Amino acid sequence: DAKTTQPNSMESNEEEPVHLPCNHSTISGADYIYWYRQRPSQGPEYVIHGLTSNVNNRIASLTIAEDRKSSTLILHHATLRDAAVYYCILRDHSGTDGTAAVQYLPGGEREGI
């Protein structure tokens, strides 16, 4: 069973990078690492995914450790619009998921989940 763990919350100042770590020590070779975010009163939104190499898109970057046991989602210039619960999910070809969540709150606010 693939499991992921993340810190309960992260914080930063606006326009600074935010690094959201995810540990997934039980990852298998077929597992993709997906990140989603959920803003207040909205449904989940896809952010990025990867298998073995680092990935970039207009929202974020995903860095994957060489052994694939951890990864980091990087929001390069975080703003208030990026305040959300971020989910790190391992998805394999059998359709089973292991999930964890971290809430990013800008400007020093802090909230556990």
H/I helix tally: 0
Proportion of residues in helical segments: under 10%
Largest β sheet strand count, sense and barrel closure: 5 strands, mixed
Order of helices and strands: EEEEEEEEE
Mean pLDDT: 82
Strand segment count: 9
**Strand-residue fraction?**
35-45%
Give the termini distance in whole angstroms.
23 Å
Oligomer: single chain
The radius of gyration over CA amounts to 13 Å
Record the strand order, biggest sheet: 1-9-8-3-4
Low-confidence stretches: 108-113
* Class computed from helices, strands and strand pairing: mainly beta
The geometry reads as globular
Region (Disordered): 1-22
GO cellular component, one term: plasma membrane
Protein name: T cell receptor alpha variable 26-2
Pfam families: V-set (PF07686)
Would you spell out the secondary-structure blueprint of this structure?
Blueprint: E1 9-10, E2 18-23, E3 32-38, E4 45-50, E5 55-56, E6 61-64, E7 70-75, E8 84-91, E9 97-104
Parallel strand pairs: 1-9
Antiparallel strand pairs: 2-7, 3-4, 3-8, 5-6, 6-7, 8-9
Report on this structure:
- The protein is mainly β.
- 0% of the residues lie in helices and 43% in strands.
- It is built from no helices and nine strands.
- The protein has a five-stranded mixed sheet, with no helix packed on it. The protein has a four-stranded antiparallel sheet with strand order 2-7-6-5, with no helix packed on it.
- A hairpin with a 4-residue loop joins strand 5 (55-56) and strand 6.
- It is globular and about 35 Å long.
- The two termini are 23 Å apart.
- Mean pLDDT is 82; it is low at 108-113.
